[in-house]
Write a structure and sequence with these properties.
46% helix; 134 residues; mainly alpha; binds zinc ion
């Protein structure tokens, strides 16, 4: 069913927040809310569950520079609290909020591209022995 569409790089489609199958339809309805399905090709987005993945990446790569900036201002200049609010606060918002959307798009597109889903057991009819699905 997906054979009519050429494989698209999750980076290309995800970072632009476009449909991982057709690369045309928008993935989000609002800032971080996924649409029910693609507006262009009708791909059902119910497979998508990036959970707190985007937040994890933001914590790793955006929050740490914000904390370092705040600590550096404190140590180097003994900056008063209002400087921290005016400099570190906006810096933290600017580095944490904007990456959430492309990161979530990239994770959803990667889920689609690599067909990632929860593992489940399949029982073989002859033996009844559990085998992991692939
Ligand atoms: Zn689509």
């Amino acid at each position: 069913m997906d054979t009519d569409y050429p494989p698209l790089s999750p980076l290309q489609t995800g970072l632009r927040c476009r449909c991982p199958r057709c690369g045309q339809g928008r993935m989000f309805d609002g800032f971080l809310t996924l649409r029910k399905q693609c507006e262009a090709c009708g791909l059902d987005y119910s497979f998508a569950d990036p959970a707190d993945g985007p937040a994890f990446f933001v914590i790793c790569f955006a929050c740490i520079p914000s904390v370092l900036l705040g600590v550096w201002l404190e140590v180097a200049f003994s900056a008063p609290v209002w400087v921290q609010f005016l400099v570190t606060g906006p810096f933290m918002l600017a580095t944490c909020i904007p990456p959430l959307r492309p990161l979530k798009g990239w994770l959803v597109a990667s889920q689609y591209f690599y067909k990632a889903e929860e593992g489940k057991l399949v029982r073989l009819p002859e033996t009844g022995a559990p085998h992991s699905a692939s």
